[in-house]
Q: What sequence folds into this?
């Protein structure tokens, strides 16, 4: 028996893309609402978007450069400044982790809206991903400006655009999957906290990969976030990019987006009944 076009993998993915495209103005409004909602009622307002990352940079600089005085290998990392090495991985990770943790509950937190108003619900996890990347992207820009002050600027930084787009697509796919799963399994929210904590320390962000035993270094091939962070560090600190690895994460990101989006679109007809 043939699968109806509207229920096929490609059909559902294309339906999601078409929906996002046709409702892009509504998506924009959701993103703006989410960003404004972060700072509503605060005296600092949108200034917190800049204050928070600057405070993060200064705090980690004090801890790693003044108190602990940790260093890394210049030859391996492209810098001997551990604060720079750490933050080059921390900001991409934070954009990813915050997107997942917030998008996972995006359907549940908007249950009243979903059950009372007819609109494309796929906009909700998408808006969370975009708003998280915008807000934390400003922090990344603050960090890039500090790198420029340290003399790291290079024309190959243009490759950052590719990495950011690939990471958004990758994150979006997982966010769609988690948002759909959390509708049916509310424990996903609590489980995700544990998963992200373990994933963070399993990824060489606070330590060089060379410190891992050889066996664990080989396990990095199953950690897609290590590929992203490795490429960020290559571009920002070593002025180079592993092209086969970059192509690989692009393909992996598209595949992840396809799987997550298919599952979300396949499940969304039941959201109203469960929520």
A:
């Amino acid at each position: 028996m043939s699968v109806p076009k509207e229920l096929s993998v490609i059909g559902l993915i294309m339906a999601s893309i078409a929906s996002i495209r046709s409702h892009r103005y509504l998506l924009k409004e959701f993103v703006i609402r989410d960003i404004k909602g972060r700072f509503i009622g605060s005296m600092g307002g949108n200034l917190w978007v800049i204050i928070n990352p600057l405070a993060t940079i200064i705090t980690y600089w004090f801890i790693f450069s003044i108190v602990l005085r940790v260093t890394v290998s210049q030859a391996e990392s492209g810098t001997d400044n551990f604060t720079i090495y750490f933050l080059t991985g921390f900001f991409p990770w934070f954009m990813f982790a915050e997107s997942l943790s917030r998008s996972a509950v995006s359907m549940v937190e908007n249950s009243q809206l979903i059950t009372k108003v007819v609109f494309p619900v796929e906009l909700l996890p998408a808006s969370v991903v975009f708003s998280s990347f915008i807000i934390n992207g400003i922090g990344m820009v603050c960090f890039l400006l500090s790198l420029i002050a340290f003399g790291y600027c290079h024309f190959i930084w243009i490759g950052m655009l590719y990495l950011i787009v690939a990471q958004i697509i990758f994150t979006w796919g997982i966010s769609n999957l988690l948002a759909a799963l959390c509708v049916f399994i509310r424990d996903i929210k609590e489980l995700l906290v544990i998963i992200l904590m373990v994933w963070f320390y399993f990824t060489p962000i606070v330590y060089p990969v060379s410190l891992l035993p050889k066996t664990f270094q080989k396990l990095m091939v199953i950690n897609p976030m290590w590929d992203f962070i490795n490429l960020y560090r290559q571009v920002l600190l070593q002025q180079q990019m592993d092209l086969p690895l970059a192509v690989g994460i692009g393909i992996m990101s598209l595949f992840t987006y396809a799987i997550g989006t298919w599952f979300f679109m396949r499940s969304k007809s039941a959201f109203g009944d469960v929520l």
User: Anything to note?
Assistant: The two ends are 32 Å apart (CA to CA). Residues 5-274 form one domain.
